[in-house]
Write a structure and sequence with these properties.
The protein is mostly helical. The chain has one domain. Helices cover 82% and strands 0% of the residues. Helix 2 runs antiparallel to helix 3. It is flat. The mean pLDDT is 89.
């Protein structure tokens, strides 16, 4: 059974997320107008940046040999990043710069990438009869 390991799996998630993000923005342009595409774009950029910051934070915390990362420090940074993301989203919606539903579509791109890779791995395991 060949299950992708750590970094390789993460790279697949990142690649699929970016592909989904571009496809969603292009679909936004095709089905709607510039504001729809811009809303999807802002949502995608925000969530991809958030994902990258989370990856960097966890990599840094877990790469310290012999040191256990501080749970309090990790949670504070996590919730600070979440609060900043929420404030940016609120400003974008409050100033009427984006359409909330289409912003949510863009914000879903990382989740769709993670689910896409998870489903593909499940199907590989299931088809090989190893699950």
């Amino acid at each position: 059974m060949e299950i992708l390991e750590g970094e390789k799996l993460l790279k697949r998630v990142e690649l699929l997320t970016r592909i989904i993000f571009v496809v969603l923005v292009l679909l936004g342009l095709l089905i709607g107008n510039f504001r729809i595409a811009l809303s999807i774009f802002f949502g995608g950029v925000l969530i991809v940046a958030n994902f990258e910051l989370l990856k960097r934070q966890l990599t840094k915390a877990l790469s310290r040999k012999g040191q256990v990362p501080s749970k309090v420090g990790l949670f504070i940074k996590y919730y600070a990043r979440f609060l900043i993301l929420a404030v940016i989203v609120l400003i974008l919606i409050k100033k009427n710069l984006v359409h909330p539903i289409w912003l949510l579509v863009g914000l879903s791109s990382v989740m769709l990438g993670i689910m896409g890779v998870a489903v593909s791995e499940f199907v590989k395991i299931f088809l090989k009869g190893e699950g």
